[in-house]
Specification:
- The protein has helices spanning about 5-10, 20-25, 30-40, 90-95, 105-120, 125-140, 145-150, 160-170, 180-185, 205-310.
- It is mainly alpha-helical.
- The chain has a domain at about 5-20 and about 30-175.
- The radius of gyration is 51 Å and the shape is rod-shaped.
- The N and C termini lie far apart (about 185 Å).
- Keywords: Coiled coil.
Amino acid sequence: MHGSRCCQHPLSLTHPSFARLLLVVPARPASHARNIATLQRLKPPSLHQLRPPDHQRYLHPHDQEATTTMGLLESPSKAGPSTGWTSMSDTVAKLSAQSAFADSEEAHAIVQTYVSSRLKSGMNKGHVSDQLDALERIVPKHRRTIRDIRSQYDMPQPPTDSISAISNAARRRPSNPPNPQQAAQQLPSPTTSPKKLPYLSPTTPTEPQAMGMLEVRGLAQRLQESETARRALETKMGEAEAERQELEERISELERRVEDAESLAATRELEKRLAEAEASTRIYDLEAAVAEAEERAERAERRWAGGAAVMA
């Protein structure tokens, strides 16, 4: 069961000389830390809705309606007890809690349950093999168990040689580095012909890194949409402010017209009263003149009568 070519190589990760290296959690690249820092700085209100699942490269047959723009989501109501579907996040959590060196039956059962659930749901072996590749990168300490499951289900094994072993070991950060002399003894001889490149490049992003990138892209898209909406709102507010100023100018003009009309009416009323007062004064003057003329006429008549009497 454990007679694969990778386990027989002197530089295989199951060799005792790499025991301390296998205990160390693989280091995350700097891009992952930057993504996490960006997410912590932005803090969106609904970040959990943007996170795609671990099996985002495959759409479950029962989850056709659960497709979103950010990824493929599992439907808990359909992908649970009826199909026995197990997510990669649960599988990673369970495998991380298992021992790294003992041929743990629990780890073997966890991986076998994960693979069988994928195959029963209709996923082909190519997709399952891709997901097992990602599972090896996320939980490298159970690489032997995962490859045993590959052999059990007749899935292709990723090629492993001295180059991949050295690159995988270089990507880890050992807390207690091995003795340089022992490391020099374990290196291949210069006459050894290098084989082809590793199955997966060290720069290939793992699924958690890819999910972080998708989250950042989704946040950037949401920020761009909110910025566009903010600019449109500012444009509308500017138009409303211009209309308000125009209405205020019209109201001020109408107020001036009303004031002018009121002042004109008051002036006309005053002129009318002055005319009436002037007419009244003239009438009074005429009456006084008429009375004075009548009085003079009476005097003249009396004088004329007195003169006539004297002459008689």
